[in-house]
Amino acid sequence: FSWLLSGITLAAKIIQSKVQRAGLNDILGSIDQRNVQGETQQKLDVLANQALLQCLGRRGNVGVMASEENEEPVVVHQDRCHGKYVVVFDPLDGSSNIDVNVSVGTIFAIHRKISAGRHGALEDVLQPGNRLAAAGYIVYGSSTMMVYSAGLGVHGFTLDPGVGEFLLSHENIRIPDEPRYYSANHGNERDWTEGIRRFTRWLQGLEGDAAPTLSHRYVGSMVADFHRNLLRGGVFYYPGDQREANKPYGKMRLMFEAQALGFLASQAGGYASDGIGDILELQPHTLHQRVPLFIGNRDLVEQAEAFIREYDQEWIDAYLPFRRGAVATV
Ligand code: AHG
Ligand code: MN
Ligand code: MN
């Protein structure tokens, strides 16, 4: 298992060196084009995906990989070894922030292979979050940090560029009892349901009792927003919307984003929900399935569920077929 993890940290170091040179790569890319080197500049999320696929695909104990960047799972065919682990990842989270020098991240989740065949299959990937063996993320911020849990608490490791290794810097992270921040894209407010609007007003201290009055912070890279809220306390939400009746499920991806961060939240004493119940209990139906996501301090996420129960019955009715897998999200 540590051999597998070292594949992830190796990929993370490769990705962070590319992220750090993102602006320079653009300059070099244009020179390359002028000199007709024949090598076109690749987008950073493609490079990040390749780094992970290559570092993990040769570890021997990885049977299947699934990436946000690939339509289908990648089955690893080994001659001698049986890959008993399944690794699912969002190689680069926060793509819209790459070109503007704002933190981005990598999210990963590790399952055990459950199918009977020699090689891995889709059923190995489509497992609920409560069966995860481990999960984590790397945030490429003012420093590069890996936050990770194998089910015994959440631990943070900071990359020491001088040594070239991740060193334990944050042992046993617990989400603080007193939350400080709420994080959501306010630009989407016109599409929010009544329950989400009231929940937001409650977070601001404008609705109901026992309101927490939080500050608002939104990076637009969920890894960075989640990381800040994990260390300082708070809630991130990307709800479903009411504008498009056929799309009540929001934007976040269950397999590549919500499961891993939900697992970390629960390991740190927090909670993640799709607005109805625990994200980790959801049985995935398709690889790129989307879900509404509320994640952070348990009491804040449960308050969101309560507002939805009270005001959003119409939205619940529209969302349930997607949750059950009767209809696929796009
Ligand atoms: P990705 O870059 O992997 O596609 O994910 C982007 C996600 C998430 O990181 C972020 O929180 C959210 O999209 C931001 O979306 P909006 O720009 O709609 O707020
Ligand atoms: Mn993402
Ligand atoms: Mn991505």
What is the strand and helix layout of this fold?
Layout: H1 2-20, H2 22-34, H3 44-57, E1 62-67, E2 74-75, E3 85-93, E4 104-112, H4 122-125, E5 134-140, E6 144-149, E7 155-160, E8 165-170, E9 181-183, H5 194-203, E10 215-216, H6 222-232, E11 234-238, E12 252-253, H7 254-267, E13 271-273, E14 290-291, E15 293-296, H8 298-311, H9 313-324
Parallel strand pairs: 1-3, 9-10, 9-11
Antiparallel strand pairs: 1-2, 3-4, 4-5, 5-6, 6-7, 7-8, 11-15, 12-14, 13-15
Helix pairs in contact: 1-3, 5-8
Bound molecules: 2,5-anhydro-1,6-di-O-phosphono-D-glucitol and manganese (II) ion (MN) (2 copies).
One manganese (II) ion binds at residues 45, 68, 90, 92-93, 95.
DSSP E strands, number: 15
Q: Report strand order across the widest sheet.
A: 2-1-3-4-5-6-7-8
Structural class: alpha+beta
| Low-pLDDT residue intervals, each spanning 5 or more residues | 29-37
Our measurement of the CA-to-CA distance between the termini, rounded to an integer number of angstroms, reads 34 Å
Return Rg in Å.
20 Å
Mean pLDDT: 92
Report the sheet-strand fraction: 15-25%
The ordered H/E elements are HHHEEEEHEEEEEHEHEEHEEEHH
Bound molecules: 2,5-anhydro-1,6-di-O-phosphono-D-glucitol, manganese (II) ion
* Alpha plus pi helix count: 9
Helix content: 25-40%
For the largest beta-sheet, the strand count, sense and barrel status come to: 8 strands, mixed
